[in-house]
Specification:
heterodimer, A: 197 residues, alpha/beta, Peroxisomal Thiolase, Chain A, domain 1, 36% helix, B: 363 residues, 11-stranded mixed β-sheet, 10 helices
Chain lengths: 197, 363
């Protein structure tokens, strides 16, 4: 398999293919909205999304110009995502909504971590396979194992992600792997994930 | 694809604490959904699939502990402790009452303590298709040769969080859920835990086995909480599963559908099955017996499908009377003695997910 590209975003910065993108540096309170405004995407649905889907959307839009996915069949792209705290941030907000006044349906639908894969599927009109795991930490070995399962079933591309929003803070790491000759190592993936300024 | 066997692990639902007890109750037409007082946001009476012997708020922990005990009572402890065994858990909310703490951490610690696992438990949380995805993932691991056995647990417990949530969406039914019926009003939420053992060989000569033929998932890329009007995701998932299994639609003897009892979901399924030309294939939804058990649903409904195959008896779709769909489906109105060789299990859920799996009676 071949690594086509990666994007890591958090409040500490934006890295696309391991390069720090200088256009974004400030640590804003609402840094996702700030980033959305700076990048000038037209996608009103963004504002309705929960933190997980917002981060996945932003990372994907940053990664998209670097990887060529246009000519592929709409169900040959699989999505493989994981995090450690599920939908913790929205779970807390929904709980607050019913403690305070009335349970909010627009929050409730985001109390599932896999909603972000639904948002990416809608954005791209992708009909491929997807799955969401809860793991204690980002584990590159685990992703490579799962990617191999997808590729052995005939998928061409796998969009993988580790998207976290909860007590441990917020971060999003997306990478795209293609079913072609080449080697992707655990170390390489871990290096792409562990970006520091 | 290697030969992969599925057998019963354990089953705890409002209808009983063993696979046999559940099957016997369903055969007699017992419904596990009852009016529960002091429930819902305004503390009214709502029909829910509640396990009455579990008291208090600590339902998830109690349910998981009971499932572990049932597994240990029915299988040798060495099965769980082997290096060649992987444990997979399917759950949407795990112990949501632990908020603001980690809601999934206790699942790992309880399983490790009770079952003395050698390997870390693998958790899948992908809304209502989690259970079917978990079975497909187990088959991937067995096929790859990394593990000889995978124990696949599906579990979700009743909580205010879930009930209030479906109430806020106006998806909770004020009557007992009636999947596929023209008078259906929505979902009855339930709670359950079940386990299926997936293995590369038969574990003993006495258990009932089915073979795993193939499975897949497909997003319908339509809406995060509304099913596709064309059934595209479900259609594509079943088509992929049929291709991977080398099975034609006419060879399917029975479908255990998702059938939540909401207007849109059941209609979507009828469109997808119509496009697949599965209109005449006998079909039911088990959600009229247990309610919608979310992350447990795929597992417990597959267990009941296996039980039907073992007993050569198709169970009726509880709560169903008159078809209320735009396409014809053969929804079972009565129990029917008939052999089932090949069965299809499907699931659909929030986030646009659809998943399916085909199983065949093992020879």
């Amino acid at each position: 398999m071949r690594l086509l590209g990666s994007c890591k975003i958090s409040e500490n910065g934006v890295f696309v293919n391991n390069n720090l993108e200088e256009y974004y540096s400030a640590c804003q309170t609402d840094w996702k909205r700030e980033l959305y405004t700076k990048l000038d995407f037209e996608y009103p649905k963004f504002h309705k999304m929960d933190p997980l889907a917002k981060m996945a959307f932003l990372s994907f839009k940053l990664l998209e110009p670097k990887v060529d996915l246009g000519s592929l069949e709409d169900d040959s792209i699989g999505m493989l995502f994981a995090n450690s705290s599920s939908s913790h941030t929205t779970d807390e907000k929904f709980k607050k909504s019913y403690y305070e006044k009335s349970p909010s349906p627009s929050l409730f639908v985001y109390t599932l971590p896999n909603i972000l894969t639904g948002e990416l599927a809608i954005l791209n009109k992708w009909y491929g396979e997807n799955i969401f795991f809860i793991q204690e930490n980002f584990n590159p070995e685990f992703y490579l194992e799962q990617i191999n399962f997808y590729f052995s079933k005939g998928l061409n591309i796998c969009l993988c992600g580790w998207v976290e929003s909860g007590p441990k803070g917020e971060e999003c790491f997306l990478f795209v792997v293609e079913n072609k000759d080449g080697d992707v190592t655990h170390d390489e993936l871990y290096k792409c994930y562990k970006q520091k300024k | 694809m290697k030969n992969i066997f599925l057998s019963y692990g354990a089953l705890i639902t409002p209808l009983g604490n063993t696979v046999d007890a559940n099957f016997e109750a369903m055969k007699r037409g017992v419904c596990g959904i009852k009016n529960v007082g002091d429930s819902g946001f305004n503390k009214e009476k709502w029909p829910l699939g509640k396990i009455n012997s579990i008291e208090g708020e600590n339902r998830y922990t109690e349910l998981l502990n009971r499932l572990c005990e049932a597994l240990l009572a029915e299988h040798p402890a060495t099965l769980f402790q082997a290096q060649s065994t992987l444990l997979i858990v399917s759950s949407t909310k795990a112990d949501i009452n632990l908020l603001p703490d980690d809601t999934f951490a206790s699942t790992r610690s309880i399983l490790h303590e009770k079952l003395k696992l050698k390997n870390d438990a693998l958790i899948i949380s992908n809304a209502c298709i989690s259970g079917v995805l978990a079975i497909n993932t187990a088959a991937d691991y067995i096929n790859s040769g990394k593990y000889k056995t995978a124990i696949v647990i599906g579990i979700d417990a009743l909580s205010d969080f879930i009930v209030y949530g479906f109430q806020s969406l106006f998806a909770l039914s004020s009557q007992v859920s009636k999947p596929f019926d023209k008078n259906r009003q929505g979902i009855s939420i339930g709670e359950a835990a079940g386990a299926i053992i997936v293995s590369s060989e038969k574990l003993n000569d006495t258990s009932f086995y089915v073979n795993y033929l193939g499975g897949s998932s497909s997003n319908d890329a339509n809406h995060i909480s509304g099913p596709s009007r064309t059934g595209e995701g479900l259609y594509r998932s079943v088509t992929k599963t049929l291709n991977r299994s080398n099975v034609s639609p006419e060879n399917i003897d029975f479908i255990s559908a998702h059938g939540t009892g909401t207007a849109y979901n059941d209609e979507m399924e009828s469109i997808a099955f119509d496009r697949l030309q599965l209109n005449d294939t006998p079909l039911n939804s088990f959600k009229g017996y247990f309610g919608h058990t979310l992350g447990a649903a795929g597992i417990i409904e597959l267990i009941m499908t296996m039980s039907m195959m073992e007993n050569n008896l198709m169970l009726k779709s509880m709560g169903f009377d008159t078809l209320g769909l735009s396409k014809e489906l053969n929804v079972l109105t009565h129990n029917c003695e008939k052999a089932i060789n090949i069965a299809l299990k499907t699931a659909s859920g929030f986030g646009g997910g659809n998943a399916s799996v085909l199983i065949k009676k093992a020879t």
